[in-house]
């Protein structure tokens, strides 16, 4: 069993202890502070960053929804056999009473887009490895900024995206200019020796 699979199993087991995180009818489900406290406790027990764990939980939930959709449609493998049950389906069964399976009223184009997104989600799921090393600090920082930004209305989300992009472009340009100056200085020194 891989470490990431073990972590996912532990994460599922931890989330199960906090119905406020998955039961949309729970009295405190809409209270961000209550939910954040739950995630902090889970984070301490698993030794991983809250934002990474939240993202992983979303991927797990989306994968469960996809697995249920496949079994409901009777999707089969290329060999014509029924698709195997998703590996965490039984472990996450506690979520089922609280999930809404969306009915399909979409066009084929929308279905393809959703399938692409689901494939991307499954790929992310396979790549996820919780880590607390300093190398991940930038990822963790932006994951945290992303979560905070998602809580804002779209108007402010767009402002933040624009400002972050402006800063990134300005700093990249500054870096390119500095790199060019350093390269020119090296070239001049080599020419004088």
UniProtKB/TrEMBL annotation:
Recorded GO CC terms: nucleus; transcription regulator complex
Domain of life from the UniProt record: Eukaryota
UniProt cross-references to PANTHER family, sorted A to Z: COREPRESSOR OF PANGOLIN, ISOFORM A-RELATED (PTHR12243:SF67), MADF DOMAIN TRANSCRIPTION FACTOR (PTHR12243)
Single GO biological process annotation from the record: regulation of transcription by RNA polymerase II
Xref: SMART domains: MADF
InterPro entries found in the cross-reference section: BESS_motif, MADF-dom, TF_Adf1
Domain named BESS: residues: 135-174
Main location: nucleus
Ranges where the MADF domain occurs: 10-100
Keywords: Nucleus
Protein name: Transcription factor Adf-1
Keyword presence, Nucleus: yes
UniProt-listed Pfam families: BESS (PF02944), MADF_DNA_bdg (PF10545)
Subcellular localization(s) per the UniProt record: Nucleus
Molecular function in Gene Ontology: DNA binding
């Amino acid at each position: 069993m891989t470490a990431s699979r073990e972590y996912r199993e532990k994460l599922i087991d931890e989330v199960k202890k906090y119905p406020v995180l998955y039961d949309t009818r729970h009295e405190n489900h809409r209270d961000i502070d209550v939910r954040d406290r739950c995630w902090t406790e889970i984070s301490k027990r698993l030794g991983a960053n809250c934002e990474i764990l939240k993202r992983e939980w979303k991927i797990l939930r989306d994968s469960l929804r996809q697995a249920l959709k496949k079994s409901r449609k009777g999707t089969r493998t290329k060999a014509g056999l029924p698709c195997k049950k998703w590996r965490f389906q039984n472990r996450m069964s506690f979520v089922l009473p609280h999930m809404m399976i969306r009915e399909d009223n979409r066009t084929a184009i929308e279905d393809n887009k959703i399938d692409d997104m689901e494939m991307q989600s499954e790929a992310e799921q396979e790549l996820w490895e919780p880590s607390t090393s300093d190398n991940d600090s930038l990822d963790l920082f932006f994951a945290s900024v992303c979560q905070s930004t998602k809580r804002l209305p779209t108007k402010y989300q767009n402002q933040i995206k624009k400002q972050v992009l402006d800063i990134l472009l300005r700093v990249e340009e500054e870096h390119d200019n500095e790199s060019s100056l350093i390269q020119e200085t090296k070239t001049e020194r080599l020419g004088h020796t």
